[in-house]
Design goal:
The chain is mainly α. It has one domain. It contains seven helices and no strands. Helix 4 packs across helix 5 and helix 4 crosses helix 6. The longest helix is centred in the middle third of the chain and has 13 residues. The mean pLDDT is about 90.
């Protein structure tokens, strides 16, 4: 099944994804230390992590471990991931590093 077919067109997760796309996340991009052509994993786009945490908050989820499970098993979260693999450690690190940003969303 294609990712876009996982949830209906009017699903709330799509609205959250659109909101995250419109957010000004320049400070988050500036903090990415990865350099193309160097060893290491490509960083996860901050828009994905922001959208996941915003949707999780709406859904009453505050645990990175629970969010990790949802990203693997719930269609709305899988759609927000857009095929990108996330883990609880990355989710927790992002949440604690960007409390102010996520709390204002």
């Amino acid at each position: 099944m294609a990712l876009d077919d996982l949830i209906p067109q009017d699903h709330e997760a799509r609205s959250v994804g659109e909101f995250a796309e419109k957010m000004s996340l320049a400070p988050l991009y500036a903090r990415i230390a990865a350099v193309e052509g160097r060893p290491g994993r490509e960083p996860i786009d901050p828009k994905i992590l922001t959208a996941l945490w915003l949707y999780a908050t709406i859904d009453g989820v505050g645990s990175a471990r629970k969010l990790d499970v949802l990203c693997k098993h719930q269609h709305a979260y899988r759609w927000l991931c857009g095929g990108v693999s996330v883990n609880y450690h990355t989710l927790a690190d992002f949440r604690t590093a960007h409390v102010e940003l996520l709390d204002q969303g």
